[in-house]
Amino acid sequence: MSDHQFETPRPVRLVTEIGKGSVTVNATETATTRVEIVGRDADQVDVRLDGDQLSVIGPRRGASFFGSDNRLDVTVTLPTASQLAVKTGSADVTVTGTVAGSQVKSGSGDVEIDTVDGPLAVETGSGGVRLEEARGDLRIKSGSGDVLVTEASATLAVSTGSGEVQLWRTHGPVVVKTGSGDVRVGDAGADVTMTTGSGDLVVNTARRGRMTAKGASGDVHVGVPAGVPVWTDISTVSGTIRSNLQGAGAPEDGADHVEVRAKVVSGDVVLTQV
Predict the structure, then answer these.
(1) Alpha-carbon distance 144 to 129, whole Å?
(2) Under a CB-based contact definition with an 8 Å cutoff, are residues 29 and 97 in contact?
(3) What's the pLDDT at 62?
(4) What is the pTM of this model?
(5) Which of 61, 79, 133, 176 is the most buried if burial means most Cβ atoms within 10 Å?
(6) What are the backbone dihedrals phi and psi of residue 62, each rounded to the nearest 5 degrees, phi first?
(7) Which residue has the higher pLDDT, 274 or 65?
């Protein structure tokens, strides 16, 4: 085991690169940053603080740190509002507390983050992504794996090859593209664009904005609160179109309204009053 401590009265920028294992970051109210490393090569990890940048770099073989087969489990406790730049070959990444704008890139492994107060970019080749709260622009790219975002306050873009995408509360524009997998938005407060090759596209509650859904195979479901005017442009080649929406008339100037544009090849389109 390797243990390092640094006095850090201000938030830091953590740069971490490891091949195999896990990275756990605990952001809390502290003026001391601690790095704990467990693994056979723990004493070969380069740990250093240069100004406000803390580097934790695993051993390399040749030109890449992905060469080591030995597992390293890295735990970092650092000040709230620190920035992260994490890169792993095959490792789970877990972040608790609130961090500032960050980047996480993993070849394979799950990524779980509590709160990000700033822009966040997450990229995984294979692994799930779970985020509690994004207060800045959010971009997620995954080759295969499920994506769950509890709350997003700004722009949200998700791209997956395969996997289920769940976005519970969105306040800014949303764009989701998936090769195969269901897409579900719980409560949408702005435009939502969803595209899938195979899977259902669902917006439980569309409060305002344009809902655009395009799919080759799968159903489209959109729920709209009572009293909100709705404009529609819907088509399906093989499927049915159903709606129980009540007429609400034209919206007043500045009032909320919803526009639904849905185009599917094989699947039903259902509009529901909620």
Answers:
(1) 10
(2) no
(3) 52
(4) 0.93
(5) 176
(6) 70, -130
(7) 274
